[in-house]
Amino acid sequence: MVKPDLDLWTGTDPIFRVFPLLSKCLKLQKLCSESPESTQHQIIHLPDFPGGTESFELCAKFCYGIKITISAHNIVSARCAAERLQMTENVEKGNLVYKLDAFFNSCILNGWKDSIVTLQTTKCFQLWSEELGITSRCIEAIASKVISNPLKVNLSRNYPKQETDKDDISGWWGEDLSELGIDLYWRTMIVVKSCDKVSAKLVGDALRIYASKWLQNVSKNLENDQNSRLLLESVVSLLPIERTAVSCSFLSKLLKAANILGASSSSRAELAQRIGTQLDEATVQDLLIPSCSCSCSLNVMMTYDVEVVLTILEHFMLQSQSPLTSPPRVKGRFERWHRRSRSENNVDFEVQESRCSSTFHSSKIKVAKFVDGYLKEISKDVNMPLSKFFALVEVVPDFARLDHDDLYNAIDNYLKVN
Question: Start and end of every NPH3 domain (predicted)?
Answer without folding.
Answer: 171-418
